[in-house]
Design goal:
Elements: H1 7-10, H2 23-30, E1 41-45, H3 51-56, E2 62-67, H4 70-79, H5 81-85, E3 89-93, E4 106-112, H6 127-139, E5 140-150, H7 153-158, H8 167-176, H9 180-189, E6 192-198, H10 219-222, H11 233-248, H12 252-260, H13 263-266, E7 270-276
Parallel strand pairs: 1-2, 1-4, 2-3, 4-5
Antiparallel strand pairs: 5-7, 6-7
Amino acid sequence: MSNYENYSQTAQHYDNTRIPVGVEIITGCLAQGAAPLAQQHLLDAGCGTGNYARALLAHVGRISAVDMNEPMLERARGKLAAEHRHGRIDFHRATIDALPFEDAVFDGVMVNQVLHHLDLAAADDYPVYRKVFAEFARVLKPGGAVIINTCSREQLRHGFWYYHLIPDQTATMCARHAPLDALRQIMQAAGITPQQCFVPTDALMQGKAYFNPQGPLKKSWRNGDSIWSTVPKKTLTTVCTRIRELEKTGKLQNHFDQHDAQRQHIGQFSFLYGRCLS
């Protein structure tokens, strides 16, 4: 589903350094709906390898998981084979701007770190985003919830200790992420009323692996963040050389601490929650 990351290649390593963060936020938002949480039908839009689906199945009644990348779906199917046999989850290869479902069938939609993989045209007022949110509104029951897991531009600039090493790619990634206020406006225009924004400052995209200052030296570690797929080989060589120099001089941990300081206050994730009230 990404137009810059080759998830067919990274699917086999994706789970090594990625964990589902904010599950308690997602369940808390869903629990405010009319139906009991254990009876709700949830859409996982852009499910990837099924990390979030597996975590949410402990709380909701059923999940429909959608992704465009077949290797990622295969990983998810293998991981959740038993749940699939018992009718708890179904899988669909599709794009999230053309969902293969009837109108008003879901109690909630969750979208975890997916939107920035879509084609964007900010100058044209984010038309792809608008199409996606219109689809969410279409498949949601009245009162259904939408929970968007994304990053603010401030979080991208200061919430990941290694992003300063790749400033050009960080700038590009910021451009790929619509500002939170723009997302709220797009939600509202689609008939989804924004409710709250949650920022879990202790949540980490890569879990404990994030704290490894030598991480960027390893491809398996880099596979945990799609920004690395945009880094040219020459730039990557420069980054690795810089890290090795810092390690050799005993300054690598101090370097990590310095560039991780703001993350502890602003976090890495923002969860926008809204409801389709029509």
